[in-house]
Structure formats: C-alpha cells, structure tokens
Amino acid sequence: MSSQLFIRVRHAGSAKELSQFLQALDDAYTGLYLLEKISEDIEPFLEYWSYYRYVHWFDVDRHDPSDFVLEKDMLHVAAVEIHSPGYWKLLGSKGPLEVIRKSLNDRHERKKDREYRNDQERRRLELENERRDLENEGLATSLLRERLQLLRDAGVPQAEIDRLLVVYAERPLNILGQHVDSGMIQESDVDQSDDTQE
Q: What is the pLDDT confidence band of residue 196, given thresholds at 50, 70 and 90?
C-alpha cells in the first residue's frame, strides 16, 4: 500500500527553485527509504558492507541510494496545483513520507514562531526552538537509530551507523527544510492510499 504526501506551497518559485526542491525531496525520500529497508532486511546490506570494509571501508558518499529503491517504491509526483497557494501530491512508501511530513511541519512551525513574536518573546522562543530542534531531530533520528540497532548487533561500528544517518537522513532533511525557510513550503500531510503506483 502506498501513501500520499500533500505539500502545501505558498508560491511556485522559479524553475531553479522547483528543480532544487524536487531534488531535495527525492534525496530525503530515497535516503530515508534506504535506512528503512536496511533495518527491515539487514542481510543484503551486511554482505555489501562486509565486502567494502575490506576493500576500502564502506563509504556512504560513494553510493547512490536510488540504486537500492524498488521501482514500485520510488517517489512519484501524482498531482501539482500551481498557484498561490498551491500543492504537490506525491506517492511513495509511508515510512519515509511520514518522516518528511514531520520534519517539514516542525520546521514550518518553528518558522511561524520566529516570524510572529516580538523581540523579547522572540529571544525566548529562539532558545526554546533550539531546544525543540534538538529534541525533534533527536526523535527523528532516534526512530531511525532504534531501527538500525540490527546493524549494531551485527557488528557494524557506531561511527558507520552515524554516517549513514547523517548522509541519508539529517543532511537531506536539512536541505529540504531550506525550502520551508524560504517560504515556499507551508505544511504537509500524509494519507494512506489504495492506489497502486504505475
């Protein structure tokens, strides 16, 4: 079963902004998908990792995660409504879409908090937001970290697991979040769908 991610946008943006947005969205989705699949079926990853640790250590920056995404699970654009405001409707695997939704909405809420407070309140909220940022990033990565416990149990060093999280989750989500900061993305929702992707 696929899920749908609806992203409400304030404005469409330039062709370059749209291209960067779609690339950031695909990178975040693909990285999160890969982390989810590693935690569900660890054997292929361990075989792959075991080979690379003897050859030149496993270097996550050298491998394109999209090579590991099943065709049926790739992120698909289902609909776009371009006006102000508009939306993007995307289809994909529920787990990665849910993490993206939470990340986008949390970032949008923090942006609203920063914009609508007076100076004194703003400083207090900045400190609160920084604390919440750390907690939210911790929650998103803690979910992934729990799912990657299998890697630890299989003997993969924590430093390598941390690199996987940075490369495939934290970095892409931060890049995607820049589109929230620019005002392009407002908020998002995830719904399950009975539609199949073609």
A: very low
- Give residues with Cβ within 8 angstroms of 37, minimum separation 6: 68
| Amino acid (1-letter code) at residue 132 | R
HSE toward the beta carbon, residue 40, CA cutoff 13 A: 7
- Greatest CA span in the chain, whole angstroms? 57
Nearest to 148 by CA among 66, 37, 58: 37
Type and span of the H or E element at 18: helix 15-40
Q: Answer yes or no: is pLDDT of 54 > 50.
A: no
Residue type, 49: W
pLDDT at 123 over 80: no
C-alpha dist (Å) from residue 168 to 31, 63, 76, 164, 183: 4, 11, 19, 6, 24
Q: Output phi, psi for 32, to 5 deg.
A: -65, -40
- Record the pTM: 0.73
**Running DSSP on this structure, what letter comes out for residue 183?**
T
What is the H or E stretch that residue 8 is in?
A: strand 2-9
Question: Above 80 in pLDDT, residue 115?
Answer: no
Enumerate the domain spans of the chain: 2-193
Cis? peptide before 85, omega within 30° of 0:
yes
For residue 24, what pLDDT is reported? 93
